[in-house]
Structures are given as C-alpha cells and as structure tokens.
C-alpha cells in the first residue's frame, strides 16, 4: 500500500501549534485525499502538494520563508531495472537542495524496505559528510551495517508498519545539518 500522508498527519498532530508539515507525492489523488484528511482533522499545520520532489524541490523551497527542520524520504520507488535508476527520487541535485535548505541542526531521515535503495540514498548523502553528520545520540542504536534499529521519530509510515508486520526489515539512517 503506498503512503497516503498519514505519517505527515501524525507528525502534524503530535506537533500542532509549533511545526508545519508538507508532504509531496506525484499521485494527485493521494495528495487530494491527504489534504481532505488534514482539513477534517483541523490540522492547519499539514499540507500536501502534487509534485515530483526530484524536479520540483529546489523551486518550491525559495517560496518558503523558513528553513527546514526535518526532511524525510520514506520508501521511495526502487526502480530496480538499471535503465530506470535515473528515475530514483534521490539524485545529486535533490540531495544538494535538501542540504542547502535544511537549517543548521535540522535532521534528514532516510528509510526504505529495500536495502539496495537505502544504501544508494545513504551513499549519496554521505558524500556531504562535511556539511551533514550522522546523528549520534545515546538513544539511537545501529545494526552491524550501520542502520538504525528503530525509527527515531516516534511515528511510523504506513509502509513501515506493513513491512514490519510481515517480518520484513527497514533500513534507516538519520543525519543532522552542521
């Protein structure tokens, strides 16, 4: 089941009154549904846009007056075929835009149920280790491969819940902007 905005809605509810959340998805119907739910729940701090983050992220952010405190990339389409890898959401331009617009101290959370995709995302962000650093807090435990054992945000995506319920693995990493 694809994400339907519930992750962002839960974060918005948890942090109502002092943090705003914007969800991006290429699927217009899911975005419309998520905006209806936000309105029904009176979550004025949650909004969803139909957009391809890879293409639109850099042009959307200059219209926002603040800096990003949290960016989450959750279970992106894996595009397994070699000729389709260029369609993966995490591309160098997107990584550069995320880092440029994330506030000092802001966090970047990556998660996938496909190890190959998670490794690719992690590798792309770790080319910027002078500007970002892997978040190192006592409460965060890693696997032998350096993946976070648990979700540090306290809210799980729909995909994460489904994968874990079926006994699958999640590959997670979190970074902080310096």
Per DSSP E runs of 2 or more residues, the count of β-strands stands at 6
Look at the helices and sheets and give the structural class.
Answer: alpha/beta
Q: Segments where pLDDT lies below 50 for 5+ residues? A: none
* CATH third-level topology: Rossmann fold
**Terminal residue distance:** 35 Å
Q: Characterize the overall form.
A: globular
Radius of gyration in whole Å, from Cα? Answer: 16 Å
What is the percent of helical residues?
Answer: 25-40%
Give the number of domains: 1
CATH class: Alpha Beta
CATH H-level homologous superfamily name = Vaccinia Virus protein VP39
Approximately what portion of the residues adopt beta-strand conformation?
Answer: 15-25%
Give a description of the structure:
- This protein has one domain: Rossmann fold, CATH 3.40.50.
- 34% of the residues lie in helices and 21% in strands.
- It has helices spanning 6-14, 28-40, 53-60, 92-101, 115-126, 158-165, and strands at residues 21-25, 46-50, 68-74, 102-112, 132-134, 171-177.
- The strands form two sheets. Strands 3-4-6-5 form a four-stranded mixed sheet, covered by helices on one side. It has a two-stranded parallel sheet with strand order 1-2.
- Helix 2 (28-40) links the parallel strand 1 and strand 2 (46-50).
- Helix 3 packs parallel to helix 4 (92-101).
- It is an enzyme of class 2 (transferase).
- InterPro entries: SAM-dependent_MTases_sf (IPR029063), tRNA_(Gua-N-7)_MeTrfase_Trmb (IPR003358).
- It comes from Selaginella moellendorffii.
- It catalyses: guanosine(46) in tRNA + S-adenosyl-L-methionine = N(7)-methylguanosine(46) in tRNA + S-adenosyl-L-homocysteine.
